[in-house]
Amino acid sequence: MTAPLLELADVSVMRGDTRVLNDVSLTINLGQHTGILGANGSGKSSLVQLVSRHLYPLHGGEVRIFGQKDWLVSDLRKLIGIVSPAHERDLTTNETLKVFEAVASAFFSSRGLWQRKLSVDMRERSEQALGRLGIAHLAAREMRTLSTGEARRVMIARALVHQPKALLLDEPCSGLDPVSRHDFLGDLRDIARAGSTLILVTHHVEEILPEISHVVLLRSGRLVDKGEKRATLTSETMSVAFGTQLEVEQQGEWYRLRRY
Fold first, then answer.
1. With 0-12 CB in 10 A as exposed, 13-18 as middle and 19+ as buried, what is 30?
2. pLDDT (tens digit, 9 = 90+) per residue, 28-86?
3. Is the N end or the C end of the chain the one with fewer CB atoms within 10 Å?
4. Cβ neighbours of 256 (radius 10 Å)
């Protein structure tokens, strides 16, 4: 039997004197596209940092990824691609970094190649990832010259060079205009259908892709609800998660929120 992609058991996390996650237990299986929803400050980013190994639970809590507690970050990156605003800022503020270098340097978990030599396979996989996101023409551009939408696609391409089993996407549509967001969500749908498991972290229910089958709701570091999308994305549960009266509307395969 395949181990779950992610298992949290009674996980609590402290930041300074604040408990940002409180006794959270959760299982996400490989192939189970999952949306993690909650307002700002609900604990979503802390959950991402648990998976990326930037945070660790308090004594007694346990985090397992593919059934394993201890990972070298470099090994974990080959299995789970992580796309976050902080990582994007790190690359787009580099004054000379080119797009191809930003993507290919994922093999070394670095911000650039710094005279590292790429194998033929690394070069081909970098080119394929750029082509898959429709941005091969940007390969020679400097990262700092890209639009937000272009930079976001570069970050996805960087995550895909390892051909990971899963992608963890932290607020992937932040900063995108409506047209760019529509196109970018289309890219994510293609990736989901191609076989990589998506864990999409957002506070916008409108970004929950039709391919997402399960939803996790957080509020103030606690788990509000989890389960199949249709049963979890209800007016009642969303009102609890966001602390205000909300009505969930389904429009075809997508969901919308309306505030009373």
1. middle
2. 999 999 999 999 889 998 998 898 888 889 988 999 999 999 888 888 888 999 898 88
3. N
4. 12
Identify the CA nearest to 113 among candidates 121, 85, 122, 141: 122
Confidence of residue 95 (pLDDT cuts 50, 70, 90): confident
Any residues with CB less than 8 A from the CB of 128 and at least 6 apart, and which? none
- Following CA atoms 70, 75, 221, 88 in sequence, which dihedral angle do they give, to the nearest 10 degrees? 150
| Residue of 249 and 77 predicted with greater confidence | 249
For residue 46, give every residue at least 6 positions away whose Cβ sits within 8 Å of its Cβ, in sequence order, or none. 13, 15, 20, 21, 55, 221
Task: Tell me the two tokens of residue 111.
Answer: 């911000």
Segment 122-140 shows an average pLDDT of: 96
Alpha helices, DSSP H only, in 133-177? 148-160
How crowded is residue 95: how many other Cβ atoms within 10 Å of its Cβ? 7
The ranges assigned to domains in the chain are: 1-79+166-179+195-230, 84-163
Nearest to 162 by CA among 88, 74, 231: 74
CB within 8 A of 40, min separation 6: which ones? 203
Task: Enter the CATH code of domain 1-79+166-179+195-230.
Answer: 3.40.50.300
Which amino acid, residue 123? Answer: R
Helix axis angle, 148-160 to 85-92, nearest 10°: 110
H/E stretch holding 130:
helix 120-132
Which of helix, strand or coil describes residue 214? Answer: strand
pLDDT for 208 beyond 90: yes
Query: Per residue in 1-22, pLDDT tens?
Result: 689 999 999 999 998 888 999 9
